Sequence to fold (207 residues):
Amino acid sequence: MIHAVEERQDNVKEIVTELERQGADLADIIVLYDFGHKGNLAAAIERYDWLTKNTYSYVDVWHLQDDIELSEHFMDIVRKLNDRAGIICGFCSEYCVDQDAKLLPPGPTESDKMWLSFPCIRIPVHITTAFSEWVKAHKDDGGITGKQIRSGKRDDELFRTFLKEEYTGMVVYNITPNLVDHRDDLCGGSIVSPQRLHCPRATYYEG
Fold:
């Protein structure tokens, strides 16, 4: 599933073309656009609800954002990971750090040490369904969680909070090499944070 906005249709076409070149079946590629700019979180919840209605709850779905560049080995690695159950983080940037500002390591880990990997992450549908329900149940809460939900941003951090609360002890995989690089600098810059001049690139990307 490619999470997209209409301004980046050209980049989405490049991503789809590259997926097909690497052997992906076009029928397996879903592109859903956030027409009207509802925001990261609201658009993500709509897409997760779409998956709830249109596929099986235990299907694993790779979620890609529209401002990424695929590794030449993306499909090869994805296929090799088919036998590994659960959530897989395929992207790490300089912001994937612990409380001491140290980079969170690759490998199997608990959810509180998972990378902020929404540019490229595999999530089973039953978990995105549960996340959608959790967000809707907490949108009017006080405190940090409710405030974050109402901001419509930081969906990756919210997802990590959700896992820590609802799936304590779940193993998440931070994998290297990274499967994508983040390149919003090549498609007009950040839409959510247009004031940001620096593009956070993938730490373990090999092209």
Summary: The chain has one domain: 2-186.
